[in-house]
Specification:
It is a single chain. By secondary structure, the chain is an alpha+beta fold. The protein contains ten helices and 21 strands. It folds into two domains: 166 residues, Muramoyl-pentapeptide Carboxypeptidase, domain 2 (2-Layer Sandwich), CATH 3.30.1380; 175 residues, no CATH class. It is 21% helix and 30% strand. The chain has a nine-stranded mixed beta sheet. A four-stranded antiparallel beta sheet has the order 2-13-14-15. The protein is elongated, with a radius of gyration of 22 Å. The termini are close together. The N terminus is likely disordered.
């Protein structure tokens, strides 16, 4: 079974921060096929406030009780356990993805692929843990002997509360135990002190540790962008506007999202890491159908090109700026023309969630951009 996630790309001009790390995934010879749609509810407005460790461990009644405190926006349980992976001690957090999303760091919260990955039964690994364990985009984790796909790299808190997040239901299936803690989200930063006092007064000696979550601020080593693109799939991308209609994205965003990979027909491409498996799957299907000769690998127009549409700063950022679009058979499918691209190729790419520029007015028949994220699930 696979799920399809609608893609939204919103451009806004604000100043925010983001972070990440390099990944260079490899992809198998066979690829999954299209499936049904998954709608994710929007997160609740909340400021990550505290991780509360209690003895005895937190229970449902504690959630209900603390949720009634003044200034509390949301309370959700996190089951924490420590295991050994590749000789390293790793903290695993089992969460309910939908409520936990509201108390995650904003960069993680806004990236829908993180939450669809968890709901699909995949693991989400922190950047530091991925580096320490030598994990990349095509890696699997073994938890108590069970191999689990890695669906995303993202941080669970600031400071992080776990090295690896998994869905609580998956933890139950794998019989992964642990002690329940509470992740608490405040209505505002100003409510945090009052919540802490109420927790200490109410829980007393049961409260063994209260780990504050650090409010996100723009640090001195962050870039000073003059624009930010943000949306469900891309998270936040800070960028500087250059004089030639191009932009210079935050290198941290690029490192976390743009990868080099080999795909059928076209060979090596540089694209958004979430689009590459889908792009590879579509091209593999075209190859299986005997249509590979209809795509000229020498006339591939690229994927990741950080620029505005038509290189005009008055317009929105192109989907190429995020590595979420690619151009094929450029010379015979110029902008404004009907193009000569075989419609069988177009139909396969459309079935894999790509929107075709040839349907636009004016048409851009060389151009395909990601419209739906198709993600495998177990």
């Amino acid at each position: 079974m696979r799920r399809i996630l609608a893609l939204t790309c919103i451009v806004a001009f604000t100043v925010t921060g983001c972070g990440g790390r390099d990944q260079a995934p490899n992809f198998p010879e066979s690829y999954p096929r299209p499936a049904t749609e998954l709608d994710l509810p929007d997160p609740m407005p909340a400021v990550p406030a505290f991780l509360a460790l209690m003895k005895p461990p937190a229970a449902d009644r504690d959630v209900k009780r603390i949720a009634r405190f003044d200034g509390v926006a949301i309370v959700t349980q996190v089951r924490l356990t420590t295991i050994t992976i590749k000789g390293e001690r790793v903290t695993v957090g089992a969460v309910d993805p939908v409520p936990f999303r509201s108390v995650a760091p904003s960069v993680t919260r806004d990236a829908e692929f993180v939450w669809s990955a968890l709901l699909a039964g995949n693991a989400v690994v922190s950047f530091d843990a991925a580096r320490e364990l030598g994990l990349e985009g095509d890696s699997k984790l073994e938890i108590d002997g069970d191999p689990i796909e890695i669906g995303a790299f993202a941080d669970s808190g600031s400071p992080r509360i776990a090295d690896v997040l998994i869905d609580r239901r998956l933890a139950d299936e794998l019989k992964i135990g642990g002690r329940n803690a509470l992740m608490i989200g405040a209505r505002s930063v100003d409510d945090r002190d009052g919540i802490a006092r109420r927790l200490q007064r109410t829980l007393g000696e049961r409260l063994t540790r209260l780990l504050p979550q650090v409010p996100e601020v723009l640090g001195p080593e962050d870039p000073e962008p003059n624009g930010t693109a943000q949306g469900g799939l891309i998270g936040r991308m800070n960028f500087e506007i250059l004089d030639d209609g191009f932009v210079k994205p935050d290198p941290n965003w690029v490192a976390a999202n743009i990868v080099t990979a080999d795909v059928p027909i076209l060979g090596r491409v540089l694209c958004h890491r979430l689009m590459v498996p889908q792009m590879a799957s579509a091209l593999a299907e075209i190859e299986r159908a005997g249509l590979a000769d209809l795509i000229d690998s020498n006339d591939y127009g690229g994927c990741y090109v950080p620029r505005f549409i038509s290189r005009d700063p008055k317009r929105a950022l192109s989907m190429h700026a995020f590595g979420l679009a690619f151009d094929i058979n450029v010379q015979t499918n110029l902008y404004g023309s009907e193009g000569q691209l075989d419609r069988r190729v177009v139909e396969v790419l459309q079935s894999w969630g790509f929107e075709w520029g040839g349907d636009w007015d004016p048409p851009d028949p060389m151009h395909f951009e990601l419209d739906r994220l198709i993600q495998p699930s177990s």
